[in-house]
Amino acid sequence: MPSGRGFGGDMAAAAASANSDMFDEIVMAEERFHGEGYQEGYAEGSHVGVIEGRRYGSLHGAKIGSEIGCYLGFALTWQCLLQKCMDEKNSKKIRVLDSLIGMIQKFPYEDPTYDKLQEDLEKIRGKFKQVCSMLNIQSDFRIGTERSSLAF
Predict the structure, then answer these.
(1) Rounded to two decimals, what is the model's pTM?
(2) Alpha carbon distance 152, 133 (integer Å)
């Protein structure tokens, strides 16, 4: 019967198509696995990058906070010491100390996205060096674990 032959022909075509699909799956497996691997790697890398970025930001923020805290403690101590014997020289030093204290108090601790953060930090460092120069004090303090001195 012609219809039986057609049916057999359809089965042969279906078998060939199934073999072709299987072959295509094997050939395309590398590409599919490459894409899946890329997606998994990207997701894992993003996760690890966020963790590493948070750790770096915390460490760097802590260093900046320690540095600024040291400057503030230094300035407040000298301000207190100089106010005990007021004269013209001390008056000028106190004005510069007040300026440093004001800069530190205006520093945006809470906003890491502040676009002038590094610029303001450099201004504070410069003012600190100016104060040290006026007080005839070395300004290269070091904070380190290997010795007990301060450094920035």
Answers:
(1) 0.65
(2) 17
